[in-house]
Amino acid sequence: MNDPNPQRVAELRALITEFLTKRRDEKLEKLTPEDPKRVELLQQFIPANWLGDAARRAGQIQAVTHSLKPVHPDAKGTNLYSPPNGLSAIELVGTHCLGDNFAGDVVGNAAALDVYKFLKLSLLGRSFLELACEANVDLAAVLNDDPAKASDWLIAFASLTDSRGHLTSHTLAKQLYWATGDDPHDNASYHLLSPLYASSLAHRVFEALQDDRFSEAAKAAREARKANTFDERPVREYPQLAIQQLGGTKPQNISQLNSERRGNNSLLASLPPVWRSSDLKPLLNTESMFSSFSRRPEVRASLKELLAFLKADPKRNQETRNTRAAMVNELIDAFLQFTAELHILEPGWSQTPQCHLSDAECRWLDPEGVAQTDTELQRPAPTDVAERISAAFANWLNGRLRDPLPLGDSEFLEWRNAMQAQIKADEREGAYAD
What's this model's pTM, rounded to 2 decimal places? Predict the structure, then answer.
């Protein structure tokens, strides 16, 4: 074993003295000069006394990177300390992305959190916890002059990263079956997972959001954007950000990092994008919605591809039918996307004198606006709107393909049925439910 480095020992001792002095003085400020507790407090913060007590209390807390209590505050089970540099690198964002500069968390008795604050002290980029885990001789020399006691205290501090007992879950913890095989009916084709809260990753996300939203540099960048001037820092926005409170009025009961965040845990919006276009306008002064639909580049491209395929007179077999159906489905998808975009418009646009669309098209593209008119006029709403729209789509597609192809009733029925089937599928998923 190497001998202690006197300079490192002195630097470590100075850090410990500063830490204990600050904590002691903060407590003394709350006491009157005559309070008898002052003598007890002064004795408590003598380095040898405090360090021995901290080593004893270290068993009441556990250093973690993945914790259970954020899943449910009353859950009791395994927490894990898995440093990012020991995790497998995958393409998805995870704790492994944090590298060596990550914030470790601690769970357990909130009254012993000061022990972890002590172990977070660092010298030359190395925390006391890291030094304890390595049985660092310099730190041992500072802890106690008795090598046996110093070794015991190092072991006690290093034990913060150890798992407590056997790996266990809890009735209040989340569990899920993860398919690992090809047969969903085979119980052996699943792993039972008990997901933990990635505390270190959540804290990094929180810090990034706080910096992007409230830092002086971020404020300056937003001011530059308002003034239309240049700023090197990009402006980052987080629309529909939600905050989940963990721990209620006692966030420290969840974990140390949760306490530092005051229980605030940011939830980024996990929503499909809503299409918004500056060119999106109501279909006014036109007799049919298919006039606008036909002008779309993707629709023109799909029509051109379908027409070329049919003009080539492919063999009449299942492969041909499948290819043709796939091309028609592209047009159906484009039509339903066209519909969804117009649903974003302010309801009621189809009820203005400038709108010349048929009743079915008005009801299809502006359902809320027409429903309001139905209520005002006390007229019943028809139940065959989807059928009429499907027939209109089939007529439109036949019309676009009929010259030069000889299309008739059989093709009309195929296009109509394909559209009706897709609309019903969307209705089952709630896309066009009333």
Answer: 0.57
